Amino acid sequence: GLIVALFYGNTILGIIIAVSLLLTLSLSNVVGSVIPVIIHKFKIDPAVASGPFITTINDALGLIIYFSIATQLLHLL
Fold first, then answer.
1. Consecutive 10-residue averages of pLDDT for the chain (77 residues)
2. What is the domain partition of the chain in residue ranges?
3. What is the spatial distance between Cα 17 and Cα 69, in angstroms, rounded to a whole number?
4. Residue 2 CB-half CA count within 13 A
5. What pLDDT, on a 0 to 100 scale, did the predictor assign at position 29?
6. Read out DSSP for 2-37?
7. How far is CA 65 from CA 17, 22, 39, 46, 59, in A?
């Protein structure tokens, strides 16, 4: 966020990117630890099945978080 704010001179854009990265990484850690446990409860090998699920969920959540924050703060840009 700081680099974006310095290079582009837009602090709101830097805040949008910094907050969305923080939330995305935090939720990715939670998803990455919960999905294998859930898959293990269904008696499926977590090493095989969790890769596609974790990647898909993290990508979808990342986009939803970024676009939600950007949409809410768009009027400030």
1. 88 88 92 89 83 88 90 84
2. 21-76
3. 9
4. 0
5. 92
6. HHHHHHH--HHHHHHHHHHHHHHHHHHHHHHHHHHH
7. 10, 10, 25, 26, 10
The secondary structure of residue 73, as a DSSP letter, is T
Place of tokens 């979808």: 60
Q: What is the pLDDT of residue 26?
A: 94
CA gap 24, 60 in Å, rounded: 10
Here the tokens at position 26 are 């935090």
Rg (CA), the chain: 16
In total, the chain counts a number of residues equal to 77
- For the entire predicted model, the pTM comes to 0.77
Query: According to the model, what pLDDT value does residue 53 have?
Result: 82
What tokens appear for 31 in the block?
């998803």
CB 18 within 8 A of CB 1: yes
